[in-house]
Write a structure and sequence with these properties.
This protein has six helices and eight strands; from the N terminus they run H-E-E-E-E-H-E-H-E-H-E-E-H-H. The protein is of the alpha+beta class. It has one domain (4-207): L-fuculose-1-phosphate Aldolase (3-Layer(aba) Sandwich). The radius of gyration is 17 Å and the shape is globular. The protein starts with a helix and ends in a 6-residue tail after the last helix. This is Aldolase, Class II. GO terms for molecular function: aldehyde-lyase activity; metal ion binding. Residues 8-184 form the Class II aldolase/adducin N-terminal domain.
């Protein structure tokens, strides 16, 4: 089976999306790119995460041709592949419909440095202009907006998180959902003071060596 390890990770982290509350039902999608082989494993469309088996995960080439699987890929495969082409540091993309990040997306509010954990994305989380799901226009909107950030809100839709591995992309999605919740709650009370660019620069520098290597 092509990309067996990648497909197993798609199953594992798909179930984690549900258990962590980062999406519901069949919402959202996730993929892993094997740059050496030029192939991407992406979740199939319209199947409950708990029912997806490794062989159901779709393998695509970079031209969106199905290389292995009898299932149809996620309808959002276009922006996954576009992100892989846009940035060579990205090897995994996770799209969520998590409640607070999606709330910010529907308000079309970027998430500023209200908490230092926004550093999982960068200095902020920008908002990509609205475009219909599954379209080239949406892929263009996301790739034009993401720049060097690791997360982007999709206006009136949800969030996309990226990383050099699926574990990292998942961590980005999880931490940015937390920051989105904090931002929503603080905005409900008043006008939260933000962390300065200078202080966020220090946070981002420390993040480079954070954790086990």
């Amino acid at each position: 089976m092509l990309l067996e390890k990648e497909r197993e990770k798609i199953v594992l982290f798909g179930n984690k999306l549900i258990s962590s509350g980062l999406t519901t039902g069949t919402g959202g999608n996730l993929s892993i790119l094997n740059r050496e082989k030029g192939l991407a494993a992406i979740s199939p469309t319209g199947i409950e995460y708990s029912e997806i088996k490794p062989e159901d995960v779709v393998v695509l080439d970079m031209d969106a041709n199905i290389v292995d699987s009898k299932k149809k890929p996620s309808s959002e495969y276009g922006f996954h592949l576009a992100l892989y082409k846009k940035r060579l540091d990205i090897c995994s993309v996770i799209h969520t419909h998590s409640a607070y990040a999606t709330t910010m997306a529907c308000l079309q509010w970027e998430i500023p440095a209200v908490h230092y954990l926004v550093g999982f994305s960068g200095h902020k989380v920008p908002v990509a202009p609205y475009a219909e799901f599954g379209t080239r226009e949406l892929a263009d909107s996301i790739t034009m907006t993401i720049k060097d950030y690791n997360a982007v809100l999709m206006a009136n839709h949800g969030m996309a998180a990226v990383g050099e591995s699926i574990a990292r992309a998942f961590a980005v999605a999880e931490e940015i959902e937390f920051v989105a919740r904090i931002y929503y709650q603080t905005k409900s009370v008043g006008l939260p003071p933000l962390i300065s660019k200078h202080e966020m620069d220090k946070v981002l520098e420390r993040f480079k060596t954070y954790g086990q290597k």
